[in-house]
Amino acid sequence: MTFFRRGALAALLLSPCLARAEMADALAVQIAANPALSAIGQRDPAAARRLVAEAAAILGVPPAGLRSAELPDETDVALLRDNPLMGAVYRHDPAAALDLLTRVKQAGGTRR
Questions:
Q1: Tens of pLDDT, residues 59-81
Q2: Of 86, 15, 12, 22, nearest to 48 (Cα)?
Q3: C-beta of residue 39 within 8 angstroms of C-beta of residue 109
Q4: Would you kindly state where each structural domain of the chain is located, as residue ranges?
Q5: CB-side exposure of 74: number of CA atoms within 13 Å?
Q6: Is the CB of residue 87 less than 8 Å from the CB of residue 94?
């Protein structure tokens, strides 16, 4: 096997590993950039990853139009202000964001 073929084979075999590493890095960046998710991630990394995945799923679907959403309370406003991912979800779909914030609070993502 020539050097070029070995290199191409190695790249082909390593590409799934690199893709997983890049996804893990992207998740780590999202979690670190959002204090609530960071706090959850320190106690339960899997829960933090699930919440990021839920936020990404919400952002990946067009909003359902204007749905009636409760007004955010003070805790929600603070979470939206301090956590850029949650703020993006709220701007995209307020009702879905408030549902997600409920799960963030249940998972312990508040400073109380």
A1: 887 776 655 556 788 888 899 99
A2: 86
A3: yes
A4: 3-106
A5: 2
A6: no
